[in-house]
Amino acid sequence: MGAFLEVSYVSKYFPDPSGRGMQCIFKDVQCGIDQGTFVTVVGHSGCGKSTLLNIIAGLERASAGGVVLDGKEIDAPGLDRMVVFQNFALMPWMSVYENIRVAVKAAHPAWAQTQVHACVLKYIEMVGLTDAASKRPAMLSGGMRQRVGIARAFSVEPKVLLLDEPFAQIDALTRGAIQEELVSIWMRTRNTVFMVTHDVDEAILLSDRIMLMTRGPEAEIAEVVDITIPRPRSRTSIIEHPHYYKIRNHIIHFLVERSRRCDRPAEAMSHHTGGIHG
Amino acid sequence: MTLAVPNETFRAVALSALLLFAALFVWQLASTPSGGGRTQGLPGPAAVATVTWEMLSEPFYDRGPNDKGIGFQVLSSLGRVAIGYSLASVVAIFLGVILGLNPILLKAANPYIQILKPISPLAWMPLFLYTIKDATGAMILVIFMSTLWPTLANTAFGVSAIKRDYLNVAALLQLSWWGRFFKVILPAAAPTIVAGLRISIGSAWVAVVAAEMLVGGTGIGYFVWNEWNNLSLTRVMFAILVIGVVGLILDAGFTRLARAIAYIE
CA of A180 to nearest chain B CA: how many angstroms apart? Predict the structure, then answer.
């Protein structure tokens, strides 16, 4: 009982646009995420996966159900969770250095200036932005900005990292490079990660486990796929793995054919599809 | 053969000089006494230039309450502006942030702000004189009223337009109220706030001249009124020039500040 991050029977309702009653975005979402695993929710846009992430972050409230992290219920944002945003959400009036420093100082209020400074430099170096440390985000490419976002999130050393479609706004060529950087950073730190995306290849490359969400309204997690392709993975090596296309086709088939709620087989909820093991 | 095309700045400066000469020429014409002898004519540019030279060569003399150097007058006006403006700015920014962060409160307070905003700050003067019974205090309060609204309205607008993302980051990082205020809200809304402060310093400078004309004693506005009573239009015109130049300098300061705090999304 009780995984490291436990999402139990979380539902979200929004006021219906027509003004009559409430619309159910997703209903009774349930999942447990073990410490040190990388779990991804894949689903169509509009299925509420970002809302689910915001609920875990504490930025939004669940309409029903709750989230428990490491034995404590989540009802507000906290430094034990940090988000990497789709649109980076860097402070444009701060340099790269200052953007990370504000996070490090928040996470370690008792630290001396020199300690903070060393920590900030460490994370800037981790994402390879040492030369750009004094630049403001507007001077950086999308890829570099998200590197800052990643460095900021890691610098807080949260219990759970929440990645909200982190690579969606980065051009395709840069995206691959940053995904691999993230893989290698994660291999070293082994943080617990909860990511949402609609990019299937990205999900397979990064995740230990992929949860497939049906289309909204009343979206649900219909299926969980374990990705047992051995690590370390890279974009070129995973596609050579015998199971890669089997997994990929399975997920795409789900997204195209089966993600409509009425088509969902009744027993599929939290059913691990066997057979797809590396 | 090609002719060098002068760049834009050069052409603007040349045109500026031309405009100045045209204005001086018209002024000279207007000040030349016409045949009718109905007026003595306005003081001409030369007379005003002489007085300007005199007054500026000895800005800090003090020969009794009604005869002080222009430096003293300007400084005393600026001092009042500094006090009233600073107080009003602190209050306006603080209230503006609170209103900007609470959409319902902003909506509730907005009608009152809209009623109070167009009131000439000088209309408050009798009330202030009656309640605090002190001319200097009343003048400072008039300046306070003149600068409160533009800064308040701009701050509330700027803060309410802050991107949700920045506030979310502040929330995730668990910044304290003051941390959020100084690290996120103020810098995020700074361009709009400074635009308000810039409008406000203009209104303050306008208000102080009028307030001093009413209840002065010292200050550039009082100087204008005093010289009018002395029928020294030359000095009045000199004072007008000084008021303009000081206003220009104040505004230029805020242009610089605006440039310093600007950011690109």
Answer: 25
Neighbours of A169 (CB within 10 A): 15
Is B172 in contact with A81 (Cβ distance < 8 A)? Answer: yes
The answer to whether the CB atoms of A57 and B265 lie below 8 A apart is: no
Per the CB < 8 Å rule, is A87 touching B165? yes
Question: Looking at per-residue confidence, does B142 or A23 come out higher?
Answer: B142
The candidate with the shortest Cα–Cα distance to B90, out of B142, B144, B141, is B144
Band of residue A265 on the pLDDT scale cut at 50, 70, 90: very low
Q: How far is Cα A31 from Cα A22, in angstroms, rounded to an integer?
A: 24
pLDDT digit string (tens) for B204-251?
999 999 999 998 788 999 999 999 998 889 999 999 999 999 999 999
A136–B263 CB contact, under 8 Å: yes
For residue B235, what pLDDT is reported? 92
Give the pLDDT of residue A273: 45
The list of chain B residues with pLDDT below 50 reads: none
Q: Can you give the pLDDT at residue A266?
A: 41
* pLDDT surpassing 90 at residue A167: yes
User: In terms of C-beta density within 10 A (0-12 exposed, 13-18 middle, 19 or more buried), how is residue A65 classed?
Assistant: middle
**B99-103, long-range: CB within 8 Å, 24+ apart, which pairs?**
B99/B152, B99/B155, B99/B156, B99/B159, B99/B160, B100/B155, B100/B156, B100/B157, B100/B158, B100/B159, B100/B160, B100/B162, B100/B189, B101/B159, B101/B160, B101/B185, B103/B160
Structure tokens at A105: 């100082």
Q: How many Å lie between the alpha carbon of A138 and the closest alpha carbon of chain B? A: 6
Q: Report ipTM (2 d.p.).
A: 0.88
Size of interface A-B (CB pairs under 8 A): 57
Distance CA A176, CA A146 (A): 13
Kindly list the residues from chain A whose CB atom is less than 8 angstroms away from the CB atom of residue B172.
Answer: 57-59, 77-79, 81-83
The total of other beta-carbon atoms located within 10 Å of residue A265's CB is 10
Nearest chain B alpha carbon to A85: B165
The share of chain A scoring above pLDDT 70, in percent, equals 92
Which stretches within B117-185 are classed as H helix? 125-132, 135-160, 164-172, 177-180
Hey, what domains does chain B have and what are their CATH numbers? 57-261 (1.10.3720.10)
Give the distance from CA B6 to its chain's centroid.
35
